[in-house]
Amino acid sequence: MATYKKRNNFQTDAPVQHIVLKRHHKIVIGSFTTIVIVYMIITAILLNGLIVKQSINNKDLTNKINSLQADTQSKLNEVTSGLMKTNEQVSSLGSQVGSIDKEFSSLKASVSEDFSGIIEQLIPSVVTIRTNIGQGTGFVITDDGYVVTNAHVLSGGNFVQAINYKQEIIEANLVGYYENYDIALLKINGSYTPLKLANSNNVQIGEKVIAIGNPLGLQFSVSQGIVSGVHRSGPNNLLAYIQTDAALNPGNSGGPLIDKNGEVVGINNFKIGSGESLGFALESNFIKDSVNQIAYKNLNQTLI
Q1: Cα(42)–Cα(44) distance, integer angstroms
Q2: pLDDT tens-digit readout, 113-152
Q3: Mean pLDDT in the chain?
Q4: Residue 110: exposed, middle, or buried by beta-carbon count in 10 A (0-12, 13-18, 19+)?
Q5: Is-contact 103 166, C-beta < 8 A?
Q6: Beta-sheet pairing, 264-271 with 256-259
Q7: I want to staple 252 with a disulfide (CB 3.0 to 4.6 A). Which of 125, 213, 278, 287 is the partner?
Q8: CA gap 179, 194 in Å, rounded
Q9: Among residues 144, 148, 133, which one has the least CA distance to residue 182?
């Protein structure tokens, strides 16, 4: 009986000690949990504040960039309009033909003998592309007035106009665009001599080229350079661009890059602003593919 009573006392005391330990643990765990929750709440508040502040800063920066772009494009349009008014005044004096001849002579003098003989043939096939918010360049690729340019030249615009070398304003209609290569196809009324697309696989590093465009609103400007590289990677990560040291500036986008045979080897697309003489043009074979895809999709035919 004594042994049984001793074992019974041991069994009675153990549960009481266990209950005391359990309450202690609850207090410790509860305090730790509270601290963790408070820490998480404070961290979430701080992170949310940083995110909101960063979003505000990004929005302000975006607004400033958009404002600067709009101001730049507005000034380009003002310069172009001023030049057109000047030419209209010259025309009213009956000297338009003489002015055009003088412009051709000036363009010839700005390039080497390799190109001076073909400038006069090329300029009538190049047009200024103008929208309500910006401008660039384009060139005729068919005799019935299909024009190719960069899609980004038209981005955000409400209307499109083409201005030829005689300063005539022609309404243009958008046929379509191919975003991967930044190519847009337009249609203008009239009959034209189209520029011929060369086989860009035959372009050689070191050969001379010229870029025709409207840099900073200066219509039908010509810059000369050489091919610095071929099959360069562009914004689309495709090896589809010719690198050239011919000067490219805002307004050159969409203009032709031309070899000494007077054929288009590329469409001037972008430059690297942090470096000197680093311009890039989409190779002519990719222009052809893009144009035919746009035409087949929207016109059920190929053009070139």
Answers
A1: 5
A2: 668 778 888 999 999 999 998 899 999 999 999 999 999 9
A3: 81
A4: middle
A5: no
A6: antiparallel
A7: 213
A8: 24
A9: 148
Structure tokens at 282: 């989409």
Instruction: Residue 194: name the closest of 236, 141, 145 by CA.
Output: 141
Summarize the chain as % helix, strand, coil (round to 5).
50, 25, 25
Give me the DSSP letters along 127-153: EEEE-SS-EEEEEE-STT-EEEEEHHH
Distance CA 248, CA 111 (A): 15
**Residue positions annotated with a catalytic role:** 152, 182, 253
Per this entry, what is the length of the chain? Answer: 304
Task: Say how far apart CA 139 and CA 284 lie, in whole Å.
Answer: 13
120 in Cβ contact with 102 (< 8 Å): no
Query: Amino acid letter at 232?
Result: R
Rounded Cα–Cα distance for residues 138 and 159 (Å): 15
- Which residues, other chains included, contact 164 with Cβ-Cβ below 8 Å and sequence gap of 6+? 124, 127, 170
Q: Tell me, letter by letter, the H, E, C secondary structure of 252-304.
A: CCCCEEEECCCCEEEEEEEECCCCCCCEEEEEHHHHHHHHHHHHHHHHCCCCC
SS3 21: helix
- Residues 166-225: pLDDT tens digits? 999 999 999 999 999 999 999 999 999 999 999 999 999 999 999 999 887 778 889 999
Q: Looking at the predicted structure, is the pLDDT value of residue 17 above 90?
A: no
The answer to whether 183 and 282 have CB atoms below 8 angstroms apart is yes
Q: Cβ distance 220 to 107 under 8 Å? A: yes
- In angstroms, the CA 230 to CA 45 distance is 52
Strand-pairing partners, residue 243, are 229, 280
Q: What is the dihedral of CA 65, 67, 73, 79, to 10 degrees?
A: -130
Measured distance CA(191)–CA(171) in Å, rounded: 14
- 221: tokens are 């400007």
